[in-house]
Amino acid sequence: MSQDLRSRVRDLAAANAPATLADRRHLHAHPELSFEEHETVAYVAGRLEEMGIPYRGVAGTGLVAEIEGGGPGPTLALRADMDALPIQEANDVAYRSTKPGIMHACGHDVHTASLLGAARILSGLKENLSGTVRLLFQPGEEKLPGGATLMIRDGALKDPAPAAIFGQHVHPPLPAGTVGFRPGIYMASTDELFLTVRGRGGHGAMPHQAVDPIVITAQIITALQQLVSRESDPTLPVVLTFGKIESEGGATNVIPNAVRLEGTLRTLDEAWRKELHQRLRRTAEGMAAALGGSAKLRVAHGYPFLKNDEPLTNWAQSAARDLLGDDKVVDLPIRMTGEDFAFYTHHVPACFYRLGVGSPSPVHTDTFDVDEACLQTGSALLAWLAMERLRQPAASSPE
Ligand code: ZN
Ligand code: ZN
Questions:
Q1: Which pLDDT score is estimated for 120?
Q2: Partner of 380 for a Cys bridge, out of 13, 114, 204, 288, CB 3.0 to 4.6 A?
Q3: What pTM does this model have?
């Protein structure tokens, strides 16, 4: 039975490959920025109508659709994000972005097309489906507060709560046809830091008449890095990076009044994340005060850490081996990048895995593109995970 279903999933993925490819190329050529995915969501709605799949609008420019199976059973969710980035595409391909300064440089066109592909496969196998597959087409992954928070607010994980949710993300270093998994904690929380250090400006040759915010800042940066190296549990990685520092005025011979810094804080533990916000503030303000200046820290809260449910992810990894072959499924290390799928993982058992796309360029660069063979793997695996999980007794009792 399972054997037979597996070949039907593969066959349907192959039969629908041209449609999925056309979807991806259309989406790639017509990218839209976060929370502005109006044409994208209209395109997705059009394809769902062709398949006869009912849907409702959520989260401004998002959709929730449901494929009801031939038999009763629990609900499972599959998620794709749909937004593009403010990057001018440098690729010279027929399907390159038609919108100046906007590009699908994070592969969300691949995610959306793969989910449409999975919907075609699942529609074709509806009679073999025991339960419901909910499709989440999500806006705004790249921008705070994260489209996932709006999807959740608008009930994407309710009535009923899905027994599990799966999502995938393109992964340039893995070849197309290959996927990667990491059970447990997988990605980091992401907070943005905005620090202002104030002193008192003056002549560069007369520092004793000024309070130099640049020297204060130098010491604050060093002190803050000790929160990572001396105060954080070394078994729970933390990253603190200041990527921007600029003075308010200043010159070779002018001490400025203030210095502004922007940075990012990444953790794998919610309690420690909150504690670090306090310690960052205490250290920066205390150090500045001790040196005669002042400091103010603003923290813009980003995404939480992403945790893959261990039993679900171990199961998904073996199901992927079943479909794709042992040599096409790899183990992945923890990453300190962030992803708003993390919000779902704090609500229901979740599995976020990587889809190999064999790209020499990393995501978020103007030369990023994919080996389009990845689309068949991406759609087949999503459909296979949903079908197979609905057949598991474990699926009906979410932990
Ligand atoms: Zn991205
Ligand atoms: Zn992304």
A1: 98
A2: 13
A3: 0.93
